[in-house]
Each structure stands twice: as structure tokens, then as C-alpha cells.
Amino acid sequence: MNLFSPAEVAKNYINIGKGKVNTPVIKMFLLAILAGAFIGVGGIASTTASVSVEQASVAKFLSACIFPGGLTMVLLAGSELFTGNNLLVIPLLEKEITVAGMLKNWVVVYLGNFVGSFLIAAGVVYGHSPSLFGNKLAVSIISTSVGKCSMTFSDALIRGILCNFLVCIAVWISFAAKDVAGKVIGLFFPIMMFVVCGFEHSVANMYYVCAGLLAKGVPQFAEAAAEAGVDFGAVTVANMLGKNLLPVTIGNIIGGAICVGCTYWFIYLRKTDK
Fold first, then answer.
1. Separation of first and last alpha carbons in the chain
2. Would you say the C-alpha torsion 125, 131, 135, 140 has a positive or negative sign?
3. If you average pLDDT over residues 116-120, what whole number do you get?
4. CA 237 vs CA 85, 107, 194, 198: distances in Å
């Protein structure tokens, strides 16, 4: 059989989670930087591939088909992603790790993801990749950041829940597969779906908003965005943190830790007297 059953995935994740929590902090942080970079690369690749497509629905679908490459690198190349690590609630509920150990992992990985995402954003902007297609890529990058910095708290929270429900399902399916092809195919569709639906992923947003913040500071890109009618006044560090990352991160934790992690623990691992 080329797949682990859902019950086997749940049991296997206990040891996977223990390994994540027990990783030395410096290694954990470096692995998290890599994951942030992988997601950032997925972000710029998906934007670049879709920016010159006129029909919005087709452009969105094309973008969604490219973005899963980021999670593919995360899971196969070896790295630590905050949203996937929300599943650490499983070994926590099994009393194999502590709350302190889980929170340490989440904080270290979250910060490392931010560093990796920012580095990719800086490389993209200061390497002047947004000048592609007559600065259309710059306009798209800045427009995307405007949308993410202008959301209501409730919208960002709900989209964060829906997003990480799908991301953790993608991670779960990848752990079920025993070969590389199965892992890639298994994770592809849930990730593609969350991008098509416009749900919100905290680590991806670290890249998207940082790229917008940096791009609007480059006169060439700011002028192109202004000429296209983009008002990027909402793109600020305060809005990135308060209007996007805060609610999206809370939503991601609810969607991943509670909706997926707690649910599967209850179904497959919870001890009963019967």
C-alpha cells in the first residue's frame, strides 16, 4: 500500500511533532527562514505567471497552479512552516510535548518565516524584477499589498481559518503518501483551492505585504502604480501587522490547530473506555 491511513498519519505525527519541538533553536530558526523563502518564491512566481493574463479568473487559476510549488519545497526540501506546525496540537494533546515547547516552536518558526519572506521580498524588489512587463508586475505587487492591508479584521480572520484548514489538510495528505509523486499530487489541490478562493495565509502575506512596502519606496514602481490608479496609502507596517497578520495568524491557528489538529486527534487518538 502506497499510503498511510489517516489513523497511521495521526500516530506518525506524534513523533514528527516531538522532533520539531526538540530541534535546537538555531536550527529551527534557520529551517524557518528557508520555509519563509520557499513560500515567498512561490508567491512571486505565481504573481509573475499570472500578471499579464487579461481575464481575471484565468489569471487567478494560473496563479493558484503555480503557488503550490512553495509548499512542495517546504515539505520535501526540509524546513519549518508556522502554519503547518499548528498541527503540533496533536502531540500536545497526547501529552508528548508541553505547551511551552509548542509555543516556543511557533514563535521561533513564525519569526524565521518572516525573515525568509522578507529576504525574498527584498531580493525581488531591489533586483528590479517588478519592472517586468512594463512595470505591470510592480503594479500587481503593490495592488496585492493594498488589498491585504485594507481588509476588515473579521474578513481576515475568517479567510485565515479557511486557508489553514486547507493548508493543514495538504500537509496531512502529504504525510499519508509514501513517495515523492504522491506527496506532490496530494498537497497540490488543497493549496490550489485556497489560492483560487482568496483565503489568507500568514506566511505568504509576510512576503506579499513586505514586497508591496518595499516596492512603493522605489520611485519607478510607485509611479507606475500611481499611473494605474492604485492608492497605496494603506500599505504601512502598522496595517500589515494589525489589519492583516494579527487576524490572519489567529485564523490560521484556529483553522490548523483546532479544525484539523484537534479534530483528527479526537477521531483517531483520543483514549476512550469503550
1. 29
2. negative
3. 98
4. 25, 19, 25, 22
Distance CA 64, CA 68 (A): 7
CA distances from 54 to 67, 136, 222 (A): 19, 12, 22
Q: Using the Cα atoms of residue 125, residue 81, residue 108 and residue 34 in order, give the sign of their dihedral.
A: negative
Smallest Cα–Cα separation from 252: which of 128, 109, 138? 109
pLDDT tens for 121-177 read: 999 999 999 999 999 999 999 999 999 999 999 999 999 999 999 999 999 999 999
Name the CA dihedral angle for 14, 15, 17, 18, rounded to a multiple of 10 degrees: 120
pLDDT-derived band at 274 (thresholds 50, 70, 90) equals: very low
Q: Which residue, chain included where needed, has cell 514563535?
A: 107
Which tens digit of pLDDT belongs to each residue from 174-200? 999 999 999 999 999 999 999 999 999
Map residue 3 onto helix, strand or coil: strand
Q: Read off the C-alpha cell for 195.
A: 489560492
Could you count the other beta carbons within 10 Å of the beta carbon of residue 56?
9
Residue 163 to residue 181: CA distance in whole angstroms: 23
Query: In this structure, what C-alpha cell is assigned to residue 3?
Result: 499510503
Assessment of whether the complete model's pTM goes beyond 0.90: yes
- State the chain's maximal CA–CA distance in angstroms: 68
Among candidate residues 113, 102, 94, the one with its CA nearest the CA of residue 35: 113
